[in-house]
Protein backbone atom coordinates (compact mmCIF):
# COMPACT_ATOMS: atom_id res chain seq x y z
CA UNK A 1 0.00 0.00 0.00
CA UNK A 2 1.28 3.49 -0.86
CA UNK A 3 1.63 5.67 2.25
CA UNK A 4 -0.34 8.92 2.24
CA UNK A 5 1.45 12.24 1.80
CA UNK A 6 2.52 13.55 5.20
CA UNK A 7 2.51 17.29 5.89
CA UNK A 8 4.45 18.90 8.73
CA UNK A 9 2.50 22.05 9.61
CA UNK A 10 4.21 24.79 11.66
CA UNK A 11 2.26 27.82 12.92
CA UNK A 12 3.82 30.96 14.38
CA UNK A 13 3.27 30.67 18.17
CA UNK A 14 0.36 33.12 18.55
CA UNK A 15 -3.43 32.71 18.67
CA UNK A 16 -4.14 34.40 15.34
CA UNK A 17 -1.73 31.98 13.67
CA UNK A 18 -2.40 28.66 15.43
CA UNK A 19 -6.14 28.91 14.62
CA UNK A 20 -5.88 29.39 10.83
CA UNK A 21 -2.91 26.99 10.45
CA UNK A 22 -4.90 24.34 12.28
CA UNK A 23 -7.72 24.83 9.79
CA UNK A 24 -5.23 24.38 6.93
CA UNK A 25 -4.02 21.21 8.70
CA UNK A 26 -7.57 19.86 8.92
CA UNK A 27 -8.33 20.76 5.32
CA UNK A 28 -5.25 18.74 4.27
CA UNK A 29 -6.39 15.84 6.47
CA UNK A 30 -9.78 16.04 4.68
CA UNK A 31 -7.87 15.45 1.45
CA UNK A 32 -6.12 12.35 2.74
CA UNK A 33 -2.88 13.79 4.13
CA UNK A 34 -1.30 12.53 7.33
CA UNK A 35 -0.62 15.72 9.32
CA UNK A 36 1.83 16.51 12.11
CA UNK A 37 1.28 19.91 13.73
CA UNK A 38 4.21 21.48 15.58
CA UNK A 39 3.44 23.83 18.45
CA UNK A 40 5.86 25.26 20.95
CA UNK A 41 5.61 23.57 24.35
CA UNK A 42 4.25 26.81 25.82
CA UNK A 43 1.45 27.05 23.24
CA UNK A 44 0.71 23.35 23.35
CA UNK A 45 0.20 23.56 27.12
CA UNK A 46 -2.16 26.52 26.66
CA UNK A 47 -4.26 24.79 24.04
CA UNK A 48 -4.45 21.64 26.16
CA UNK A 49 -5.37 23.67 29.26
CA UNK A 50 -8.14 25.52 27.43
CA UNK A 51 -9.75 22.18 26.65
CA UNK A 52 -10.76 23.65 23.29
CA UNK A 53 -8.13 22.74 20.89
CA UNK A 54 -6.98 19.31 20.12
CA UNK A 55 -10.08 17.08 20.09
CA UNK A 56 -10.22 15.83 16.57
CA UNK A 57 -10.29 12.05 16.77
CA UNK A 58 -6.56 11.83 16.14
CA UNK A 59 -6.67 13.15 12.55
CA UNK A 60 -3.89 15.60 13.34
CA UNK A 61 -0.85 14.53 15.37
CA UNK A 62 0.50 17.20 17.72
CA UNK A 63 4.17 17.58 18.57
CA UNK A 64 5.49 20.15 21.07
CA UNK A 65 8.98 21.65 20.91
CA UNK A 66 10.74 24.17 23.24
CA UNK A 67 10.79 27.80 22.05
CA UNK A 68 14.02 28.72 23.82
CA UNK A 69 12.44 31.18 26.26
CA UNK A 70 12.67 30.60 30.02
CA UNK A 71 9.25 29.73 31.56
CA UNK A 72 8.36 33.17 32.95
CA UNK A 73 9.53 35.22 29.95
CA UNK A 74 7.25 37.60 28.07
CA UNK A 75 6.03 35.77 24.98
CA UNK A 76 4.20 38.88 23.85
CA UNK A 77 7.66 40.17 22.89
CA UNK A 78 7.24 38.93 19.35
CA UNK A 79 10.55 40.24 18.10
CA UNK A 80 12.52 38.34 20.72
CA UNK A 81 10.42 35.22 20.29
CA UNK A 82 10.79 35.27 16.51
CA UNK A 83 14.53 35.58 16.65
CA UNK A 84 14.93 32.86 19.32
CA UNK A 85 12.86 30.38 17.36
CA UNK A 86 15.48 29.86 14.70
CA UNK A 87 18.06 28.60 17.19
CA UNK A 88 15.71 26.48 19.23
CA UNK A 89 12.95 25.14 17.01
CA UNK A 90 14.81 24.65 13.75
CA UNK A 91 17.04 21.76 14.95
CA UNK A 92 14.04 19.90 16.39
CA UNK A 93 12.05 20.31 13.19
CA UNK A 94 14.92 19.09 11.05
CA UNK A 95 15.28 16.09 13.36
CA UNK A 96 11.57 15.31 12.95
CA UNK A 97 11.83 15.40 9.16
CA UNK A 98 14.97 13.28 9.01
CA UNK A 99 13.77 10.74 11.62
CA UNK A 100 10.48 10.28 9.75
CA UNK A 101 12.46 9.24 6.66
CA UNK A 102 14.11 6.51 8.71
CA UNK A 103 10.82 5.18 9.99
CA UNK A 104 10.73 7.25 13.23
CA UNK A 105 7.50 8.89 14.41
CA UNK A 106 3.91 8.24 13.42
CA UNK A 107 2.38 9.04 10.04
CA UNK A 108 5.26 7.79 7.88
CA UNK A 109 7.83 9.83 6.05
CA UNK A 110 7.20 13.56 6.12
CA UNK A 111 6.77 14.48 2.47
CA UNK A 112 6.11 18.21 2.68
CA UNK A 113 6.22 21.23 5.01
CA UNK A 114 3.42 23.79 5.32
CA UNK A 115 4.86 26.68 7.23
CA UNK A 116 3.48 29.90 8.59
CA UNK A 117 5.32 32.61 6.65
CA UNK A 118 6.05 34.40 9.93
CA UNK A 119 7.96 31.45 11.37
CA UNK A 120 10.88 32.48 9.19
CA UNK A 121 13.16 31.43 6.38
CA UNK A 122 14.73 28.63 8.40
CA UNK A 123 11.71 26.37 8.08
CA UNK A 124 11.57 26.65 4.30
CA UNK A 125 15.34 26.11 4.21
CA UNK A 126 14.90 22.80 6.04
CA UNK A 127 12.46 21.67 3.35
CA UNK A 128 14.93 22.66 0.66
CA UNK A 129 17.84 20.89 2.36
CA UNK A 130 15.88 17.72 2.97
CA UNK A 131 14.45 17.72 -0.55
CA UNK A 132 10.74 17.87 0.31
CA UNK A 133 8.02 20.17 -0.98
CA UNK A 134 7.14 23.28 0.91
CA UNK A 135 4.47 25.94 1.12
CA UNK A 136 4.30 29.18 3.07
CA UNK A 137 0.98 30.22 4.60
CA UNK A 138 0.34 33.93 5.02
CA UNK A 139 -2.48 34.15 7.56
CA UNK A 140 -3.04 37.89 7.05
CA UNK A 141 -4.02 40.14 4.15
CA UNK A 142 -2.52 40.05 0.68
CA UNK A 143 -2.07 43.82 0.94
CA UNK A 144 0.22 43.48 3.94
CA UNK A 145 2.05 40.57 2.33
CA UNK A 146 2.56 42.82 -0.71
CA UNK A 147 4.35 45.36 1.47
CA UNK A 148 6.79 42.67 2.61
CA UNK A 149 7.31 41.36 -0.91
CA UNK A 150 7.95 44.96 -2.04
CA UNK A 151 10.51 45.78 0.63
CA UNK A 152 13.29 46.32 -1.93
CA UNK A 153 11.14 48.72 -3.94
CA UNK A 154 10.28 50.61 -0.74
CA UNK A 155 14.01 50.92 -0.05
CA UNK A 156 14.74 52.07 -3.62
CA UNK A 157 11.95 54.65 -3.39
CA UNK A 158 13.36 55.98 -0.11
CA UNK A 159 10.22 55.05 1.81
CA UNK A 160 12.07 52.89 4.32
CA UNK A 161 15.58 52.49 5.66
CA UNK A 162 17.56 49.61 4.15
CA UNK A 163 18.98 48.48 7.49
CA UNK A 164 16.01 48.43 9.85
CA UNK A 165 12.98 49.16 7.64
CA UNK A 166 12.05 52.27 9.63
CA UNK A 167 9.99 54.99 7.93
CA UNK A 168 11.95 57.71 6.12
CA UNK A 169 10.60 60.97 4.73
CA UNK A 170 7.39 60.09 2.87
CA UNK A 171 4.44 59.48 5.15
CA UNK A 172 2.41 57.46 2.71
CA UNK A 173 3.04 55.29 -0.35
CA UNK A 174 0.96 53.32 -2.81
CA UNK A 175 2.05 49.92 -4.10
CA UNK A 176 -0.22 50.24 -7.13
CA UNK A 177 -2.79 52.74 -8.33
CA UNK A 178 -5.57 50.31 -7.40
CA UNK A 179 -4.37 49.87 -3.83
CA UNK A 180 -5.07 52.37 -1.06
CA UNK A 181 -2.33 54.67 0.22
CA UNK A 182 -0.57 53.10 3.18
CA UNK A 183 1.46 54.80 5.88
CA UNK A 184 5.09 53.81 6.18
CA UNK A 185 4.82 53.98 9.96
CA UNK A 186 2.09 51.33 9.64
CA UNK A 187 4.28 48.77 7.91
CA UNK A 188 3.94 45.66 10.04
CA UNK A 189 7.59 45.62 11.13
CA UNK A 190 7.31 49.24 12.25
CA UNK A 191 4.47 48.68 14.68
CA UNK A 192 5.01 45.53 16.65
CA UNK A 193 6.05 47.46 19.73
CA UNK A 194 9.16 49.10 21.09
CA UNK A 195 12.22 46.98 20.75
CA UNK A 196 15.95 47.23 20.46
CA UNK A 197 16.16 44.54 17.82
CA UNK A 198 14.38 46.38 15.03
CA UNK A 199 17.22 45.88 12.54
CA UNK A 200 17.53 42.15 13.27
CA UNK A 201 13.76 41.77 12.96
CA UNK A 202 13.65 43.58 9.64
CA UNK A 203 16.50 41.47 8.28
CA UNK A 204 14.58 38.41 9.40
CA UNK A 205 11.65 39.59 7.30
CA UNK A 206 13.91 40.20 4.31
CA UNK A 207 15.28 36.65 4.65
CA UNK A 208 11.68 35.40 4.67
CA UNK A 209 10.98 37.15 1.39
CA UNK A 210 14.01 35.51 -0.21
CA UNK A 211 13.02 32.08 1.16
CA UNK A 212 9.48 32.10 -0.23
CA UNK A 213 10.90 32.58 -3.71
CA UNK A 214 12.04 28.95 -3.48
CA UNK A 215 8.96 27.30 -2.01
CA UNK A 216 6.31 25.53 -4.07
CA UNK A 217 3.30 27.58 -2.96
CA UNK A 218 2.54 30.80 -1.16
CA UNK A 219 -1.06 30.72 0.05
CA UNK A 220 -3.00 33.44 1.79
CA UNK A 221 -6.15 33.49 3.97
CA UNK A 222 -7.97 36.00 1.78
CA UNK A 223 -10.10 35.83 -1.37
CA UNK A 224 -9.78 37.21 -4.87
CA UNK A 225 -12.62 39.73 -4.73
CA UNK A 226 -11.45 41.16 -1.41
CA UNK A 227 -8.04 42.24 -2.71
CA UNK A 228 -7.90 41.98 -6.52
CA UNK A 229 -5.17 44.61 -6.87
CA UNK A 230 -2.80 42.87 -4.45
CA UNK A 231 -3.34 39.53 -6.18
CA UNK A 232 -2.64 41.03 -9.57
CA UNK A 233 0.52 42.65 -8.21
CA UNK A 234 1.72 39.25 -6.90
CA UNK A 235 -0.02 36.56 -8.95
CA UNK A 236 2.07 33.84 -7.27
CA UNK A 237 0.13 34.45 -4.03
CA UNK A 238 -2.83 32.06 -3.99
CA UNK A 239 -5.89 33.14 -2.01
CA UNK A 240 -7.49 30.15 -0.26
CA UNK A 241 -9.80 31.93 2.18
CA UNK A 242 -11.69 32.93 4.05
CA UNK A 243 -10.88 29.88 6.14
CA UNK A 244 -13.45 28.76 8.67
CA UNK A 245 -11.24 29.55 11.63
CA UNK A 246 -11.56 28.37 15.21
CA UNK A 247 -14.07 25.59 14.76
CA UNK A 248 -14.43 22.23 13.11
CA UNK A 249 -17.85 20.61 12.79
CA UNK A 250 -19.21 23.01 15.39
CA UNK A 251 -16.42 22.26 17.87
CA UNK A 252 -13.77 24.76 18.93
CA UNK A 253 -10.21 24.06 17.77
CA UNK A 254 -6.90 25.74 18.49
CA UNK A 255 -8.05 28.18 21.19
CA UNK A 256 -5.73 29.42 23.94
CA UNK A 257 -8.68 30.28 26.19
CA UNK A 258 -11.78 28.18 26.74
CA UNK A 259 -14.63 29.68 24.71
CA UNK A 260 -17.71 30.33 26.82
CA UNK A 261 -19.90 28.58 24.30
CA UNK A 262 -23.05 27.92 26.21
CA UNK A 263 -22.99 31.29 28.00
CA UNK A 264 -22.53 33.26 24.77
CA UNK A 265 -24.87 31.33 22.52
CA UNK A 266 -27.81 30.97 24.90
CA UNK A 267 -27.62 34.68 25.72
CA UNK A 268 -27.59 35.52 21.97
CA UNK A 269 -30.52 33.16 21.38
CA UNK A 270 -32.61 35.34 23.69
CA UNK A 271 -31.88 38.57 21.76
CA UNK A 272 -33.84 39.96 18.78
CA UNK A 273 -32.37 39.69 15.28
CA UNK A 274 -29.59 42.22 14.48
CA UNK A 275 -29.73 43.90 17.86
CA UNK A 276 -26.40 43.00 19.49
CA UNK A 277 -23.02 44.74 19.32
CA UNK A 278 -20.25 42.13 19.50
CA UNK A 279 -17.08 43.58 21.05
CA UNK A 280 -13.80 41.66 20.87
CA UNK A 281 -10.18 42.66 20.42
CA UNK A 282 -8.42 39.36 19.72
CA UNK A 283 -5.62 37.86 21.73
CA UNK A 284 -3.01 40.65 22.07
CA UNK A 285 -4.79 43.97 22.53
CA UNK A 286 -4.32 45.62 25.92
CA UNK A 287 -6.13 48.63 27.31
CA UNK A 288 -5.11 51.12 29.93
CA UNK A 289 -7.67 51.84 32.63
CA UNK A 290 -8.92 55.06 31.07
CA UNK A 291 -9.61 53.49 27.66
CA UNK A 292 -11.20 50.44 29.22
CA UNK A 293 -13.53 52.66 31.22
CA UNK A 294 -14.46 54.78 28.18
CA UNK A 295 -15.30 51.64 26.24
CA UNK A 296 -17.56 50.36 29.02
CA UNK A 297 -19.29 53.73 29.32
CA UNK A 298 -19.58 54.08 25.53
CA UNK A 299 -21.34 50.74 25.31
CA UNK A 300 -23.66 51.81 28.11
CA UNK A 301 -24.32 55.18 26.49
CA UNK A 302 -25.19 53.56 23.16
CA UNK A 303 -28.26 51.99 24.74
CA UNK A 304 -27.62 48.86 22.66
CA UNK A 305 -27.27 45.28 23.83
CA UNK A 306 -23.73 43.98 23.68
CA UNK A 307 -21.65 40.84 24.07
CA UNK A 308 -18.20 41.97 25.20
CA UNK A 309 -15.15 39.72 25.38
CA UNK A 310 -13.02 40.86 28.30
CA UNK A 311 -9.93 38.66 28.15
CA UNK A 312 -8.51 37.96 31.63
CA UNK A 313 -5.27 39.78 30.65
CA UNK A 314 -6.74 42.69 28.70
CA UNK A 315 -5.76 45.43 31.15
CA UNK A 316 -2.19 46.68 31.13
CA UNK A 317 -0.16 45.65 34.16
CA UNK A 318 -2.39 42.62 34.74
CA UNK A 319 -4.75 44.68 36.93
CA UNK A 320 -8.10 43.26 37.93
CA UNK A 321 -10.68 44.72 35.57
CA UNK A 322 -11.68 48.14 36.69
CA UNK A 323 -15.21 48.63 35.49
CA UNK A 324 -16.68 52.09 36.04
CA UNK A 325 -18.50 52.50 39.33
CA UNK A 326 -21.86 50.73 39.26
CA UNK A 327 -21.42 49.61 35.63
CA UNK A 328 -21.76 45.90 36.31
CA UNK A 329 -24.97 46.34 38.33
CA UNK A 330 -26.53 48.86 35.96
CA UNK A 331 -25.73 47.16 32.69
CA UNK A 332 -24.60 43.59 33.15
CA UNK A 333 -26.76 42.33 36.00
CA UNK A 334 -29.48 39.76 35.41
CA UNK A 335 -31.79 41.04 32.70
CA UNK A 336 -29.22 43.75 31.79
CA UNK A 337 -28.33 44.69 28.24
CA UNK A 338 -24.72 43.67 28.49
CA UNK A 339 -23.11 40.25 28.61
CA UNK A 340 -19.45 39.77 29.48
CA UNK A 341 -17.41 36.70 28.64
CA UNK A 342 -13.69 35.99 28.96
CA UNK A 343 -13.42 34.35 25.51
CA UNK A 344 -16.15 33.62 22.97
CA UNK A 345 -16.65 31.06 20.22
CA UNK A 346 -16.20 33.96 17.81
CA UNK A 347 -17.04 32.26 14.50
CA UNK A 348 -20.31 31.02 15.94
CA UNK A 349 -21.06 34.38 17.54
CA UNK A 350 -20.56 36.28 14.29
CA UNK A 351 -22.79 33.80 12.47
CA UNK A 352 -25.62 34.33 14.98
CA UNK A 353 -28.60 36.28 13.58
CA UNK A 354 -28.78 38.45 16.72
CA UNK A 355 -25.41 40.06 15.99
CA UNK A 356 -25.68 43.46 14.32
CA UNK A 357 -22.12 44.77 14.29
CA UNK A 358 -18.59 44.02 15.43
CA UNK A 359 -16.37 46.39 17.42
CA UNK A 360 -13.05 44.87 16.41
CA UNK A 361 -9.31 45.42 16.66
CA UNK A 362 -9.13 44.44 12.95
CA UNK A 363 -6.94 41.37 13.41
CA UNK A 364 -7.03 39.65 10.02
CA UNK A 365 -8.82 36.53 11.27
CA UNK A 366 -11.46 38.69 12.93
CA UNK A 367 -11.72 40.78 9.76
CA UNK A 368 -12.29 37.72 7.56
CA UNK A 369 -14.70 36.22 10.12
CA UNK A 370 -16.76 39.42 10.17
CA UNK A 371 -16.78 39.57 6.38
CA UNK A 372 -17.75 35.95 5.82
CA UNK A 373 -20.66 36.44 8.20
CA UNK A 374 -21.74 39.79 6.76
CA UNK A 375 -21.23 41.81 9.96
CA UNK A 376 -20.24 45.51 9.65
CA UNK A 377 -17.43 46.86 11.81
CA UNK A 378 -16.34 49.60 14.12
CA UNK A 379 -12.65 49.37 13.22
CA UNK A 380 -10.36 49.99 16.19
CA UNK A 381 -6.80 48.73 15.48
CA UNK A 382 -4.17 48.11 18.11
CA UNK A 383 -0.93 47.07 16.40
CA UNK A 384 0.94 45.41 13.52
CA UNK A 385 -1.08 44.79 10.34
CA UNK A 386 -4.34 45.97 11.94
CA UNK A 387 -3.92 49.57 10.70
CA UNK A 388 -3.87 48.44 7.08
CA UNK A 389 -6.82 46.12 7.74
CA UNK A 390 -8.71 49.10 9.13
CA UNK A 391 -8.13 50.97 5.86
CA UNK A 392 -9.59 48.05 3.89
CA UNK A 393 -12.62 47.83 6.18
CA UNK A 394 -13.45 51.52 6.18
CA UNK A 395 -12.04 52.98 2.95
CA UNK A 396 -11.78 50.14 0.42
CA UNK A 397 -14.72 47.82 1.14
CA UNK A 398 -16.62 50.50 3.06
CA UNK A 399 -18.07 47.94 5.47
CA UNK A 400 -17.20 49.71 8.69
CA UNK A 401 -16.44 52.97 10.44
CA UNK A 402 -13.13 53.97 11.97
CA UNK A 403 -12.91 54.52 15.72
CA UNK A 404 -10.99 57.78 16.03
CA UNK A 405 -9.05 58.90 19.10
CA UNK A 406 -9.31 62.44 20.47
CA UNK A 407 -6.31 64.73 20.95
CA UNK A 408 -5.28 62.92 24.12
CA UNK A 409 -5.24 59.58 22.28
CA UNK A 410 -8.45 58.28 23.85
CA UNK A 411 -11.47 56.95 21.98
CA UNK A 412 -14.19 58.55 24.05
CA UNK A 413 -17.50 57.14 25.22
CA UNK A 414 -19.38 59.78 23.23
CA UNK A 415 -17.50 58.84 20.07
CA UNK A 416 -18.13 55.12 20.60
CA UNK A 417 -21.85 55.65 21.13
CA UNK A 418 -22.14 58.01 18.15
CA UNK A 419 -20.27 55.63 15.82
CA UNK A 420 -22.48 52.73 16.88
CA UNK A 421 -25.61 54.77 16.22
CA UNK A 422 -24.28 55.80 12.81
CA UNK A 423 -23.32 52.23 11.89
CA UNK A 424 -26.62 50.70 13.01
CA UNK A 425 -28.55 53.15 10.86
CA UNK A 426 -26.44 52.82 7.72
CA UNK A 427 -28.31 50.71 5.18
CA UNK A 428 -25.58 51.16 2.53
CA UNK A 429 -23.02 49.68 4.87
CA UNK A 430 -25.16 46.60 5.37
CA UNK A 431 -25.70 46.19 1.64
CA UNK A 432 -21.98 46.36 0.97
CA UNK A 433 -21.07 43.88 3.70
CA UNK A 434 -23.73 41.46 2.41
CA UNK A 435 -22.22 41.71 -1.09
CA UNK A 436 -18.75 41.01 0.31
CA UNK A 437 -20.14 38.08 2.30
CA UNK A 438 -21.65 36.66 -0.90
CA UNK A 439 -18.33 36.98 -2.73
CA UNK A 440 -16.53 35.32 0.20
CA UNK A 441 -18.99 32.42 0.16
CA UNK A 442 -18.77 31.95 -3.58
CA UNK A 443 -14.99 31.76 -3.38
CA UNK A 444 -15.06 28.80 -0.98
CA UNK A 445 -17.77 26.79 -2.77
CA UNK A 446 -16.68 23.82 -4.85
CA UNK A 447 -16.20 25.79 -8.08
CA UNK A 448 -15.06 28.94 -6.29
CA UNK A 449 -11.62 30.50 -6.72
CA UNK A 450 -10.33 29.87 -3.18
CA UNK A 451 -11.60 26.30 -3.23
CA UNK A 452 -9.86 25.70 -6.56
CA UNK A 453 -6.65 27.27 -5.29
CA UNK A 454 -6.67 25.06 -2.21
CA UNK A 455 -7.06 22.01 -4.46
CA UNK A 456 -4.17 23.16 -6.65
CA UNK A 457 -2.04 23.64 -3.53
CA UNK A 458 -3.02 20.25 -2.03
CA UNK A 459 -2.44 18.39 -5.29
CA UNK A 460 0.92 20.09 -5.73
CA UNK A 461 1.97 19.16 -2.22
CA UNK A 462 0.88 15.57 -2.78
CA UNK A 463 3.42 15.07 -5.56
CA UNK A 464 6.61 13.26 -4.65
N1 LIG B 1 -11.25 34.69 19.03
C1 LIG B 1 -12.17 33.86 19.61
N2 LIG B 1 -12.84 34.34 20.71
C2 LIG B 1 -12.64 35.57 21.22
C3 LIG B 1 -11.71 36.42 20.59
C4 LIG B 1 -11.03 35.95 19.48
O1 LIG B 1 -12.41 32.74 19.17
O2 LIG B 1 -13.28 35.90 22.22
C5 LIG B 1 -10.51 34.18 17.84
C6 LIG B 1 -10.98 34.88 16.59
O3 LIG B 1 -12.12 34.22 16.08
C7 LIG B 1 -9.75 34.78 15.69
C8 LIG B 1 -8.58 34.76 16.68
O4 LIG B 1 -9.14 34.46 17.96
O5 LIG B 1 -9.80 33.58 14.95
C9 LIG B 1 -7.89 36.10 16.80
O6 LIG B 1 -7.17 36.35 15.63
P1 LIG B 1 -7.07 37.81 15.01
O7 LIG B 1 -6.22 37.69 13.79
O8 LIG B 1 -8.41 38.38 14.81
O9 LIG B 1 -6.38 38.67 16.13
P2 LIG B 1 -5.05 38.52 17.04
O10 LIG B 1 -5.44 37.74 18.23
O11 LIG B 1 -4.02 37.82 16.20
O12 LIG B 1 -4.70 39.91 17.38
UniProtKB/TrEMBL annotation:
InterPro entries: UDP_glucos_trans. Belongs to the UDP-glycosyltransferase family. It comes from Lolium multiflorum. Keywords: Transferase. The keyword Cell membrane does not apply. GO terms for molecular function: quercetin 3-O-glucosyltransferase activity; quercetin 7-O-glucosyltransferase activity. This is Uncharacterized protein. PANTHER family: GLUCOSYL/GLUCURONOSYL TRANSFERASES, UDP-GLYCOSYLTRANSFERASE 83A1-LIKE. The keyword Transferase applies. Pfam families: UDPGT.
Amino acid sequence: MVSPPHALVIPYPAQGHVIPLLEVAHALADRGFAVTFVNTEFIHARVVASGAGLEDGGRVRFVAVPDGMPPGDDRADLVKLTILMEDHIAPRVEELVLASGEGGGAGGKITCMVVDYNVGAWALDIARRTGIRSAAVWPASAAVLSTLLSYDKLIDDNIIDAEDGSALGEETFQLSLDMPPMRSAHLAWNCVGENDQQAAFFQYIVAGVRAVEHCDFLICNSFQDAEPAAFSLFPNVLPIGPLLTGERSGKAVGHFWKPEDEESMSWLDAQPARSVVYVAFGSFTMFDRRQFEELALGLELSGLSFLWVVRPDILQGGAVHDYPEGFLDRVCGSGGRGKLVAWSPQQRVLAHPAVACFVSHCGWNSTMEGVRNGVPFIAWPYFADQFVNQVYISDVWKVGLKAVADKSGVITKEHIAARLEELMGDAGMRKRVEALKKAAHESIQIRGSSYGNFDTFAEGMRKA
